[in-house]
């Protein structure tokens, strides 16, 4: 049986929007969520419908544990099930560790880790009950793997979501459900201040590829991991960063040279 339905959180813009469209091109019906940009979500929905699949749209504040579960369940019910779940909604911060407030810490952790886990768990429970496998893809960040100054809560959450990915992969494999993370580097989206900018026109000398990534490049990787063809890939973290993480080796070489 081919996968028929997908939920993509935070699909009102950026990577989420590109992913919803990539999965719709594969013929999947799409569940879209938005937090503050309803117009963006409706635009994504319009473009999905133009491709042919059905679409459902719901507002989601994934930092609210009850809402994370309830909206995932509501979308799955409306779509007639959930075969693919893409955990894309997230937030960040730029506060030094010694200045982070408890409120800011909780906001980021609740959004990027707690809510993300609870939504994925609800989707996984439904996949197990349906009995025909499924795909969960968590959008993390290169900061799932390396730290970033001024982003202690964000890094903690993304490291944590990477661990959630691995544990879920172990526990769900027997049900034919794969769980992977995609860890983007700098991508031209609203979060990086470059939404609707052609990344090929932006210069990034510190990145081997010389530019930021395009949201569609991330979406295509997610689309592959969400396919039947990716059935032997689970518990992996796919870093898509134009070679940015490799620059640590260059820095080490320069320092020792």
Description:
It is a single chain. By secondary structure, this protein is of the alpha/beta class. It has one domain: NAD(P)-binding Rossmann-like Domain (Rossmann fold, 3-Layer(aba) Sandwich). The protein has helices at residues 14-25, 38-51, 65-79, 102-130, 152-172, 215-225, 247-256; strands at residues 5-8, 29-34, 55-59, 84-87, 134-139, 177-184, 237-240. A seven-stranded parallel beta sheet has the order 3-2-1-4-5-6-7, with helices on both faces. Helix 6 (215-225) links the parallel strand 6 and strand 7.
Tell me the major beta sheet.
7 strands, parallel
Main β-sheet, spatial strand arrangement: 3-2-1-4-5-6-7
Specify the CATH homologous superfamily: NAD(P)-binding Rossmann-like Domain
Instruction: Please report the distance between the alpha carbons of the first and last residues.
Output: 56 Å
Mean pLDDT: 92
Number of domains: 1
What CATH calls the topology is: Rossmann fold
Principal-axes shape call: globular
CATH architecture heading:
3-Layer(aba) Sandwich
């Amino acid at each position: 049986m081919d996968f028929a339905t997908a939920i993509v959180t935070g699909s009102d813009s950026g990577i989420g929007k590109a992913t919803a469209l990539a999965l719709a091109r594969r013929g999947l019906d799409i569940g879209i969520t938005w937090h503050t940009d309803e117009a963006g979500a409706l635009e994504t929905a319009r473009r999905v419908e133009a491709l042919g699949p059905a679409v459902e749209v719901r507002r989601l504040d994934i930092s609210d544990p009850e809402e994370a579960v309830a909206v995932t369940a509501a979308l799955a019910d409306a779509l007639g099930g959930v075969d693919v779940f893409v955990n894309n909604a997230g937030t960040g911060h730029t506060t030094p560790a010694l200045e982070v407030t408890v409120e800011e810490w909780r906001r980021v952790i609740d959004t990027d880790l707690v809510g993300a886990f609870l939504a994925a768990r609800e989707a996984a429970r439904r996949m197990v009950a349906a009995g025909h496998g499924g795909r969960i893809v968590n959008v993390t960040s290169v900061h799932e793997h390396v730290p970033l100054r001024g982003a202690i809560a964000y890094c903690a959450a993304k490291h944590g979501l990477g661990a959630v990915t691995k544990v879920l992969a172990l526990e769900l494999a027997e049900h034919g459900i794969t769980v992977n993370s995609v860890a983007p580097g700098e991508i031209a989206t609203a979060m990086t201040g470059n939404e609707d900018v052609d990344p090929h026109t932006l210069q990034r000398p510190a990145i081997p590829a010389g530019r930021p990534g395009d949201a569609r490049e991330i979406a295509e990787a997610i689309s592959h991991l969400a396919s039947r063809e990716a059935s032997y890939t689970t518990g992996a973290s796919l870093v898509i960063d134009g070679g940015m993480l490799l620059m640590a080796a260059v820095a080490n070489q320069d320092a020792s040279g």
